[in-house]
Amino acid sequence: MYRDSFDAVILAGGNSIRFGTDKCEFEIDGKSMLKRVAELFELPIIVTDKPRDIKGKIVQDNWKDGPLKALKLALKLVSKEKVFVTGCDFPFLSRGLVEILCSKQEHVATTLTCGKIQPLLSCYSLDYLKTHIDNFKSMTDLLINSPSVYIAGLREITMIDPHLRTLLNVNRVSDLWKTQRGFWNTRIWNNTTRLFVL
């Protein structure tokens, strides 16, 4: 049983069009992708557009208006200074990565895969979210406009997950057989005051 020093938000809505079925309920080794993620946290906040039989604080998203709006709904239940945000489509997420990201002092701590930041694999300052979430139209905007960003580097992540499965974003069934070879093709935004890559 984990005792979290941060809140965790899992976005479990969407149409799963590319997946072909509700990917949150897709089972890997007898366990749904949503459950695999949710069990990493003490009491996650789960934003969903359908009933879910899962331990956590359930937030109903009847609008299905994208991840940023879903996160805004979840913020009503957030009380801790840091908020880890993810989706059910990271079924191999490592608790170690979450703890690394949420231990950082920057407004946002995130990861890179295939040269792209992962706003749904990031830890945010609650103050930053509450102050700025209404100013942006997407999760990426929220991340790249942060005054400070920490990007976890390859060496740092391989210490907890040598095969980088924690970064695997599953949008199609075929993604389950992907490797993370493109991980280190990085792009870095330079509009932040403090940016670290190890």
UniProtKB/TrEMBL annotation:
Pfam families: NTP_transf_3 (PF12804). It comes from the Archaea. GO terms for molecular function: nucleotidyltransferase activity. The keyword Transferase applies. This is Molybdenum cofactor guanylyltransferase. Transmembrane segments: none annotated. Residues 8-125 form the MobA-like NTP transferase domain. InterPro entries: MobA-like_NTP_Trfase, Nucleotide-diphossugar_trans. It comes from Metallosphaera prunae. Keywords: Nucleotidyltransferase, Transferase.
